[in-house]
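Quick one, T. Sequence first:
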Amino acid sequence: MPRIYCPKATSAAPGASSDLKLTYWEGYGGVSKDFGFASGGVKFSYSPNWTGTTSSEAQYLEANVDVPAGKYFTINLHAGHQWFDDNGSVGLDDYTDWSIGASTGIAGFSLKAAYVGTDLPQGQLDAVYRQDSSDKFVASISREF
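Structure tokens:
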């Protein structure tokens, strides 16, 4: 199903410096399809001035696949690549990210766990995101009302 969305981001990231210009807009479009044995989709995102830097364009292309694993679980796969028009003004190299995880539903709750990573150099992870490693395990519990 094709989707196009164009939000405006206006809030700062947790731990981000208050002098960063984090107001910018980003638009994206994507397609997805359920094949029965698996579902998948691709999405392309674009921003003409990512994080308010000197009009540095940014693009992100991602692919996602969900594969049922038995009666109760779904395997979730993700791969994406981020490009910046002016890496120097953004302070980041272009990079690839990925994740592999599993999800399930219990009593109206959605439970997810994933191993995520990126090939962003360690020095940039330290300087920009204040992270000590590119690989992380993340888990979430959510419920819609």
